[in-house]
Amino acid sequence: MKLEMRDNNKAYEDSDSNSFIPESVYQSLPEFLMNAVEGFKDRERDMVLLSSIVAIGSCIPNIFGIYDRSTVYPNLYLFVIAPPASDKGAIKWSKLLVDPIHDLLQKNSQKRINEYQKLEDKSNHERPKFQIKLVPGNISSSKLYQHIKEANDSILFFETEADTISNMFKSDWGNISDILRKAFHHEEISISRKENNLFIDIKEPKLSMIISGTPNQLIALIESIENGLFSRFMFYSFNKSSKWRDVSPNASPIKFKEKFNKLSTIILKLFLYLSETDKSLEVRLSERQWNILQNRFAELTEMKSISNNGLDFSSCIKRHGLIAFRISIIMTVLRNIENLNNESQVIQAQNLDVKNAVQITHCLLGHSSTIFNTLAKNNNFININEEEFFKKLGKSFNTNEAQILAYSFNIKERTFFRILDRFEKANLIQRISRGVYKKTI
Fold first, then answer.
1. Which of 384, 352, 379, 345 is nearest to 222 (CA)?
2. Is 200 helix (H, G, I), strand (E, B) or coil?
3. Edge-to-edge, what's the strand order for the sheet holding 63-67?
4. What is the mean pLDDT of residues 388-406?
5. Using an 8 Å Cβ cutoff, are 137 and 157 in contact?
6. What's CA 333's distance to the chain center, in Å?
7. pLDDT digits (tens, 9 = 90+) for 153-211
8. 24-52 pLDDT, tens per residue?
9. Is there a contact between 432 and 438 (Cβ–Cβ < 8 Å)?
10. Can you say whether the dihedral through the CA atoms of 66, 68, 72, 76 is positive or negative?
11. Which pLDDT belongs to residue 390?
């Protein structure tokens, strides 16, 4: 459901106060991440770090941890929000870390499929899976199910233009939203369609996401701050467009594409080793490290400022505890990248990686809080009750029919006309004639 914001810059006028990732984090990163962020500054450095962490988390199969009595994997969702011409495209460098894995999986899959198609008798042979690592934003929910199902491990949903996603969501939003919410916690997802007798059931989906876009594009993806999808994302937002920078060949001694291509070979080797191992590796935190994580998020949860206009921010804080744990897993693997081929099935996290994960997540909670408060106050943002009311409206309707339906949702008359006006301004509905409307999506 797409709801437009009236003024991007005004809506996010305070977002420049959102903090940078602390300098102390950059001074104690695993060597791989230090190399990845070298040569970047300020917002770009933060975005490269965050997107690299998420990208790598999708490329370390058979790595897990235990959080709140459940097995969790290092899959994360990242949304970078900034105005046009703000250098948010810096996340593109993290994609280079994943490209070789994607190309290899695609090439090998196509080879197996071609060999299968040449068989005269296919009755005793199962059609090979078509495996990929990178999934584009322009995709249907049924195709997304298929890619998750056929992946041996995780897939990475990567899109630098959120409009691509929002256009697709207009027709397929409900299904995609359900996938994203459940996949974050690796909960079972399934789909059944009459066409082609389609039935897909996935017991433990693993999905990572890296998206960038403008504030308006956020609204198309996160249709309500109350439906749980908002709290599953790491948000990084800022409002200032970037200044002109030196774009000449001599601007930097670092050849970034060459650097990330070299780093990608390390991730490819890591991916192949972990894919071929016959054992799963558990990342564990010590009692002291659990105290570091839990004490911080317990403090944040108990803060009086976690609500806005009756909307509770605590679910966001609690899920960021899980996000901090997953970042700890990824950093621990990178810290031990040369020592994963021993006989142990347990990797012990280091204190500084857990501390860094908590600091990063605490910073991101500030970004999430800014966006949350803005959306909660924004008159064009609907709540769950209004969302359900909209869904129950017919494709076309008159004011009397809609008002009778509104009563069943405990929507009073004055509020009803305000909601109807908001729907119309947001282009959710269109007036056909006096008192008669039709849905536009």
1. 384
2. strand
3. 70-72, 63-67, 281-284, 346-348
4. 87
5. yes
6. 21
7. 999 999 887 666 666 655 554 467 788 899 999 999 888 776 666 788 889 999 999 99
8. 999 999 999 999 999 999 899 999 999 99
9. yes
10. negative
11. 84
Q: What is the CB neighbour count within 10 angstroms for residue 205?
A: 24
The pLDDT of residue 91 is above 70: yes
For residue 198, list its beta bridge partners: 193
Is the pLDDT higher at 282 or at 214?
Answer: 282
pTM score, whole prediction:
0.80
CA distance 297 to 292: 9
DSSP letter at 242? Answer: P
Q: Please give the Cα distance from 212 to 80 (Å, whole number).
A: 4
Residue type at 110 in one-letter notation: Q
Tokens 């810059």 identify what position? 9
Q: Are 251 and 245 in contact (CB under 8 A)?
A: yes
Q: Render 313-354 in DSSP notation, one character per residue.
A: -HHHHHHHHHHHHHHHHHHHHHHTTTSTTSS-SEEEPPHHHH
Question: CA-CA distance, 393 to 350, in Å (whole number)?
Answer: 54
Q: Are 74 and 60 in contact (CB under 8 A)?
A: yes
Which sign, positive or negative, has the C-alpha torsion 365, 366, 367, 372?
Answer: positive
Q: How far apart are CA 58 and CA 167, in angstroms?
A: 25
What percent of the chain has pLDDT above 90? 42
Assigned token pair, 84: 């046009």
263: how many CB neighbours lie within 10 A of its CB? 20
Contacts of 370 (CB under 8 A, 6+ apart): 12, 14, 15, 17, 18, 237
